[in-house]
Amino acid sequence: MASSCVELLVLTLLLAPVLLQASAARHVVVVVLGDVGRSPRMQYHALSLAKSGFSVTLLGFYSKPRDELLQSDRIQIVELTELQSLGAGPRVLQYGVKVVFQAVYLLWKLMCTDPAAYIFLQNPPGLPAIAVCWFVGCLCRSKLVIDWHNYGYSIMGLVHGPQHPIVLLAEWYERFFGRLSHLNLCVTDAMREDLAENWRVRAVTLYDKPASFFKETPVDLQHKLFMKLGHMYPPFRSCQEPSDGTTERSAFTERDSRSGAVTHLHGRPALLVSSTSWTGLPLPRHPGCFEQLALSGDSLPSLVCVITGKGPLKEHYSHLISQKHFRHVQVCTPWLEAEDYPLLLGSADLGVCLHMSSSGLDLPMKVVDMFGCCLPVCAVNFKCLHELVRHGENGLVFKDAEELAVQLQMLFSNFPDPAGKLNEFRKNLRESEQLRWDESWQCTVLPLVTTK
């Protein structure tokens, strides 16, 4: 009996590494040292891997992700805890303490996770995540895959200045540890070329694609959304109540209660949508420019500007806007539920993007989502924006608020004009062959991963 137990123990010890390696081969860890709910690209990584038979552990700061992730029995979400600011001491010391805490904490979480064949990491933020994931990969024989969304040091440079010692240290760190990865993905060809020329890192460009729920919103759903938002935000409410009780009306649509038919109102306002982090913006200046053009006698509609998102200067700009008394422009800054944001984009007439890349090498995901809804876009121009926004084909690019106002004048002249530029852009977007995430990621990412 004793000898049988010894033999069983020896057999178990011999087979354990083989069994662990076999289970690890179908397991991937996806790391987001940030908000999971606001990291759509990494969510799509996890979904694509799960759909192809991998078990996925997704680590990140938790906010509600897509329902598909929560419903998948192949995806486990491990919530990370973010260290709050110390609130005392020099900023450099506070940052150093935060980095050390995150390094130890992430190391502990990864070591408590089942062994994986691959560790997918979003960068930025890469400090200290790249070094920690590489170290864990060495211990557990996992391959490190970095998805380069931007450069972390360039974002830090916006706050501290490009020559600040912390920024220079962060750049050295990112260059050194970035070269230790086994596979690299990036969001633009410009970033791929920069990684190759200046970092000696080989990467594969994988453009962002819109999720399937970003699409044009049918007019009946538009009406429901406008009526819902109208309870909280006046710009969505009808200025004129219907004379009879058989019609339900928003600022943009009306519904016949007897037939259930929904139509757009004649003479309705134009709906402009922008999502922003409320930093240094040209957008809050453009309503005044548009107001002046409308007052000059041009055939322009009234304009409802919906600005979503949150950021440090939101209250400041909201206060400035509230002091203006426009006749032809209304500005609304709602907080939208996750399921309402795609519906709003699919209901709008024009999107405005104010994304200013810190490196000049990444592209705004918000424009990708707008294009998924066949929504034409006006976007602030920078180095590689042409890889997404083709000026005069699916939208326009501008350099300042004055140029944006001129573009709005051109696009909204004689609105709604079936033969106008807005409809031409929308038609081009409908006809463009843009693959959705569930198709493109399975046929592009997974072969790269599984053959390395």
Automatic annotation (TrEMBL):
Residues 237-258 are annotated as: Disordered. It is a single-pass membrane protein. Pfam families: Glycos_transf_1. Pathway: Protein modification; protein glycosylation. Residues 240-250 have a biased composition (Polar residues). One of its GO terms (cellular component) is endoplasmic reticulum membrane. It catalyses: an N,N'-diacetylchitobiosyl-diphospho-di-trans,poly-cis-dolichol + GDP-alpha-D-mannose = a beta-D-Man-(1->4)-beta-D-GlcNAc-(1->4)-alpha-D-GlcNAc-diphospho-di-trans,poly-cis-dolichol + GDP + H(+). InterPro entries: ALG1-like (IPR026051), Glyco_trans_1 (IPR001296). Keywords: Endoplasmic reticulum, Glycosyltransferase, Membrane, Phosphoprotein, Signal, Signal-anchor, Transferase, Transmembrane, Transmembrane helix. Residues 1-25 form the signal peptide. Its main location: endoplasmic reticulum. GO terms for molecular function: chitobiosyldiphosphodolichol beta-mannosyltransferase activity. It is found in: Endoplasmic reticulum membrane. Residues 299-414 form the Glycosyl transferase family domain. Its EC number is 2.4.1.142. Mannosyltransferase that operates in the biosynthetic pathway of dolichol-linked oligosaccharides, the glycan precursors employed in protein asparagine (N)-glycosylation. The assembly of dolichol-linked oligosaccharides begins on the cytosolic side of the endoplasmic reticulum membrane and finishes in its lumen. The sequential addition of sugars to dolichol pyrophosphate produces dolichol-linked oligosaccharides containing fourteen sugars, including two GlcNAcs, nine mannoses and three glucoses. Belongs to the glycosyltransferase group 1 family. Glycosyltransferase 33 subfamily. This is Chitobiosyldiphosphodolichol beta-mannosyltransferase. It comes from Nannospalax galili (Northern Israeli blind subterranean mole rat). The lineage of its organism: Eukaryota, Metazoa, Chordata, Craniata, Vertebrata.
